[in-house]
Amino acid sequence: MNLHQQPVARIQLKKYFVFSLIEHNRISGHCQLCNQDYKDKVGIFSNFIKHLKRKHLPEYERTFNKQDEGLLEEEIIEGDGRPTTELSTNKFKQTRINLAIAKHLIIRCNFPLNLVENHAFRDFIKDCNVKWTPISAKHLKHNTIAPFKEKVNTIIHDALSAVDHVTLTVDGWTDRKCRSFLGVTCHFINFKMEPESYLIDFVRLKSPHTGENILQTTESILDRFQIKEKVYKVVTDNAASMIKAYKFGLAVDDEINDNSRETQLLSKTNA
After folding, report:
1. Which tens digits make up the pLDDT trace of 202-252?
2. How far is CA 111 from the centre of its chain?
3. Does 60 reside within a domain?
4. Residues 184, 223: one domain?
5. How far apart are CA 62 and CA 42, in angstroms?
């Protein structure tokens, strides 16, 4: 097998690990940088990548592009002295294709989940790989996209834990099928004095659009990210339910003091 035909993860990780096949369909990797041994399932490289990222960050950053972290899982087996892969197996190809659909088409291109149930789309994938087994939108959501969502939530949670104050924007609307939704975005200035924004949740509102229900839903989201006491301002439209929901609460204690300082500065400026 030519070098350019080998999986990306295998090529990159072999710079730092010596892999060997062990029992129960597992592989062992010996880190040549710190002489530590790690194990993982055949075809799964997350333990080795995590070790490289946590213990040898400079080497990790030189080796991997962050955008490709989620797809750095290739099959590697050290058998009779020749490196081989299980890339040709139907199950592995199926997983790779489903990951690519989720990451590039659903997440990056914002295509709907039911794209995978479209007959023309299925015919297209079949032309690319005749052994691909069609999946449902439900399967894509719960089995393929869920790990991406969990990873993003962890990134957002870590970012929000590092700041003291945040501002929210909250908006609710109804689609053509009369289903109601609530979106909450979070905004703050990071330690580099750069603005950051995150969509922290997008939820279905099945209860009436009362101010109390909107407030309870928002507080539930804030509690999950542990930022309820960090909220400085809440920006909404002028709907009566929104005004009622955020008329009280969801503000840090020093808001009044900040307003007082602003008033003093304005007074000095106008003097």
Report:
1. 999 887 778 888 888 999 999 999 999 999 889 988 888 888 877 755 554
2. 17
3. yes
4. yes
5. 25
